[in-house]
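2 proteins. here.
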Amino acid sequence: MHDIIGAIYPIPRYLKDRFFDGKTKVFVKFLARKSTRLAPKDKIIFYVSRGSKKLVGEGVIQKVEFLTPQDVMAKYRQLLFLNEDEFYAYVKRSPMRTESKEMLTLVLKDLREYTAPIQYDRPMTMTGQYLTAAEYNSLISRKVH
């Protein structure tokens, strides 16, 4: 079995610049289950969704929590990568999401945008995918410096 060292998550192109402005950010995602194999010090790589199919940057997980939307806003409002309207639109996008459903909440640090995005030809769903050390090293070796 391969050890997970992180994950790749898609983000809309219009949100990309918010991740790489030098500030700690909080990334949230609803998952099917309240569990994850991610842990502090793992990496998150961001994939720009809707057409470009490129990995645009990464960050390091500082903290992993499962919080309700209300708790996310109370605790991380100023650090959240979404503004309040975007956040609540995301929360209400699916009828399966309720105010009591907890979401994966990742506090990220050391966010850096790649100087040249990395083409990613594998299929990517909105749920993202886990990343092994071998996969990460393979991706980074393709990066143009």
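next one coming up
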Amino acid sequence: MTKRFFAFLVASGTAAACNVGARYVLDIWLPYLTSIIIAYLIGMTVAFFLNRAFVFQDRHGSRARQAMWFLAVNVLAIMQTAIISLVLARWLLPALSIPHADTVAHMIGVAAPAITSFIAHNLLTFRTDKRAED
């Protein structure tokens, strides 16, 4: 595991904790689904700034371009998480008689995009070549 990938995992874990914590706080005043959506946006914002400051700090380019790519990569990660979670929870894990299939599937689904997101952020969001500065 590279130092950068480890830093990415730490930044992502911190952002996930902010997401969960924000949802608990927002739940006090807002409906459940609304609090989930707002908390996700908070977590994603935290992830962007942590990655920009601590993981890919040597990268250049406009913050707006980086934010656009960060959002696009995260949309793909959400889709990847949903597909993996659903396939595991509805078919594979029940076929294997795994208890708590929904929870296990969701945990695997959330972890699955770690590598693909890291690669995409490295190549697209925080790339180092001259095109990144446009």
